[in-house]
Amino acid sequence: MSLKKYLYNYTKYRFTKSNLLELWKDIKESIAGTDKDFTNIPLRKSILLLSIPMVLETLMESIFAITDIFFVSKLGPDAIATVGLTESMLTMIYAVGMGLSMATTAMVSRRIGEKKPYSASVIAVQAIMAGIVVSLAIGIPGIIFAPSLLKLMGASNIIVEEFSVYTTIILGSNMVIMLLFIINAVFRSSGDAAISMRVLWLANIVNIVLDPIFIFGWGPIPAMGIKGAALATTIGRGLAVIYQFYLLFKGHGRVRIIRRAIKLNLKVMYNLFKVSLGGIGQSLVATISWVGMVRIIAEYGSNALAGYTIAIRVIIFALMPSWGISNAAATLVGQNLGAKKPERAERAVWITGYVNMVLLGLVSIIFITYPDFFIRLFIDNPDVVKSGAKGLQIISMGYIFYAMGMVMVQSFNGAGDTRTPTLINIVCFWMIEIPLALILSKRVFHNENGVFTAIVIAESLMTLIAIYLFRKGKWKTEKV
């Protein structure tokens, strides 16, 4: 079926009164949780039921980060710098967590599509075991060497001596981050996206309440400064993980862990790590590319760098709902491949991609028209606003391409083909984006606008390559 036919079939929906009532009913069902079989109900309904809680989940992730930096910023620049340096160290943890999550999504969704809930339970157990082992390997050295790691990252003596406790707690408790990633992937990929959403709601609410209390003190609780921020974050995530385990053992979700599933399964563990390597590679390639772009922009001064940093934060926040929609595509691909319905899986990707294009297309119009407004929300410096607004405006011009591209990439991951997106990332980010940013910024634009333009070109090319490879259909034969 042609792309034109896909688009027609989706857009022929009419918003009559009865359809609007049905839409409202579906929205409430998606938030409350549903037991629908996503391999049999209409695709439009499947996408809606999965996307809404996944979008809300990703927004919760953004709010978590914003809450922390909002309260920590009251402690001064050294505290902010400590959080920034610690976050950069967490990059490896996030990469591993995302890699294991991608593998978990592919394998659990496939088993659910095959109507094998016990096999999905076995995969969940192996993923949790893997997460615990990896987090211990990171956490123990993190507790011991946190001050040394900060010093290695270029932190000042004040940060190392007075604020390293934050890094110690965050690195030492990285297990809660890892498990939060992995177990939410289990719920999400099985079709219980509303559970993942509620888990992050719990983590967020606890963090928002405890942050100001622990940082500044309240009643009998003494002010703990940056240590309080670390404890609030860890407690919020920790309680969320406890809730996850309760739901896995006692809940009524599609995946439940029973006693006989709790054992090491080397075959499943091997497949899990094999698939996760591609996901880890994707995260690392993108992260290293980001560092490279920051290094190029830094040559044009602190105002350009500040503008770029703010613009990217605005862009990432705006992309969060689209990541939720893309995760829905990944789940639908895995489940429908498991149900031996590859054509339905393909159709789900195109429809989801078009929905994402409409959403980000509207966002891009706003960012292109009023870029200054969003940068001024963070800073009033006219030079920073000028640079950041131009960056936001240029990068937003590629939003429609990004919309389809991220759905395509997540669809490969949902099928278990994590190698293809990794190779695409290497080509587009390392071989095209970074060299092109250097050429355009130094020889064509002679300023940071060359970097912004390189991002649009590289991301758009990534989408075209992904579409080409997706059309070839090799992902439909992937075994996980």
Fold blueprint:
Blueprint: H1 3-11, H2 17-32, H3 43-72, H4 77-113, H5 117-152, H6 157-172, H7 174-190, H8 193-216, H9 226-250, H10 266-298, H11 302-338, H12 342-369, H13 371-376, H14 382-396, H15 399-415, H16 419-444, H17 449-472
Helix pairs in contact: 1-12, 2-3, 3-8, 3-11, 4-5, 4-6, 4-7, 4-10, 4-11, 5-6, 5-7, 5-10, 6-9, 7-8, 7-9, 8-9, 10-16, 11-12, 11-14, 11-15, 12-14, 12-15, 14-17, 15-17, 16-17
Question: Can you characterise this structure?
Answer:
The protein has 480 residues and is mainly alpha-helical. It contains 17 helices and no strands. The longest helix is centred in the first third of the chain and has 37 residues. The radius of gyration is 22 Å and the shape is globular.
The number of helical segments is 17
Per DSSP E runs of 2 or more residues, the count of β-strands stands at: 0
Order of helices and strands: HHHHHHHHHHHHHHHHH
Radius of gyration: 22 Å
Helical content, roughly?
Answer: over 70%
Shape category: globular
What labels would you give this structure?
single chain, 480 residues, mainly alpha, 2 domains, 17 helices, 0% strand, globular
